[in-house]
Amino acid sequence: MRPFRVEVPQEDLDDLKRRLAETRWPSELPDTGWTRGVPRSYLRELAEYWRTEYDWRTAEKQLNAFPQYMTVIDGADIHFLHVRSPEPDALPLILTHGWPGSVAEFMDVIGPLTDPRTHGGDPGQAFHLVIPSLPGFGFSGAVRESGWNVHRIALAWAELMNRLGYGRYLAQGGDAGSPISLELGRVAPDRVIGVHVNMLIAPPAGSPEELNALTESDQSRLLGFSRFDAELSGYMKIMSTRPQTLAYALHDSPVGQLAWIAEKFYEWTDSHSVPEDAVDRDRLLTNVSIYWLTRTAASSAGFYYEGAEERQTMPEPVPVPVGVAVFPHDIFLPVRRFADRFLPHISHWSEFDRGGHFAAMEQPDLLVRDIRSFARPLRTSAATLESR
Questions:
Q1: How many CA atoms lie within 13 A of 224 on its CB side?
Q2: For the CA atoms of 281, 283, 288, 293, what is the dihedral angle to 10 degrees?
């Protein structure tokens, strides 16, 4: 493992600004809002802010405030933050982002999770944090071979935690980080004491009579699955089938990359008119900038291609305790009875009245409290096993 610092060459930032200034803008039908995609007026204003006011160097400084490392696992470069708690009895926790996320998602939860004493919390609820960039994403850079699906990433995470000397630990994630964390619980049940997710995919299953007998609330959640499949999943279908074709546009046009990601921050968050209703504008642009500056549009999109076959099968049961946090404006919401079918050890289930897909950015306080609540009864068992 070698220390790592984010140091983007100035010429890359100058190139970004030049490309933004020279954007060729498409036409747009009047009065369509977000119904056909990102409105041109919104995107032009956001792109101009990115070019003239957003400061990458500030974001770079914020990222470099945390210890970062690079290592090679199974032939892939893996970048990760490793933030040790000042509390000697802190519990190790690996946090995993998804697409279109990055390690920058977690900047607002790092302090409260690692140092609750300083942030008004119980020091007995502290965590040592490991926050990796997915293979092919961000500072991990492009992968050099195919096959980096959920299972392979989970094996890599198990190896990473082993190299760091963590015998027992928790896993947490949203978006792709959710199935990866659950898979980590499957491949390393002797090490993973529990898995907490803030997005759970629980495919509907059962007879027509059983589905018709669902409560009105659960029926509404089923309609969310249907809407996702019919309207909101276009991005996934493209990246699952033709990621390389899409990558030429995202790799060459920063506005293309911006639109591709900003749309998700509008559709998947607790926003009302623009994504910034739910997330900080600069943090959104930091996330987009990471994809652009690391040139990982193609390799990150390829993650969906690698996982296409996995998504067609019902996942195996997870043999460790699982906690689920449900934020009401996520992509879709799980039905508990479906979740219980492949997660027989759900020990914690929370339903919130605000927040969406990017919980660590939208509602960091709620997410931190929920992780602490899930972990509280598991700490004793972890400490007992560690002492044996």
A1: 19
A2: 130
Measured at the alpha carbon of residue 88, what is the angle toward residues 84 and 90, in degrees to the nearest 5?
65
Smallest CA-to-CA distance from 93 within 298, 313, 323 is with 323
Torsion sign, CA atoms 388, 371, 106, 232? positive
Residues with catalytic function: 175, 304, 357
Scanning 23-176, the segments in alpha helix (DSSP H) are: 40-52, 56-64, 107-114, 150-163
pLDDT digits (tens, 9 = 90+) for 90-149: 999 999 999 999 999 999 999 999 999 999 999 999 999 999 999 999 999 999 999 999
Q: From 116, 114, 118, 115, select the one nearest 130 (Cα to Cα).
A: 114
Contact at 8 Å (CB) between 301 and 239? Answer: yes
pTM: 0.95
The answer to whether 338 touches 204, Cβ cutoff 8 Å, is yes
* Cα dihedral value 47, 360, 80, 75, nearest 10: -80
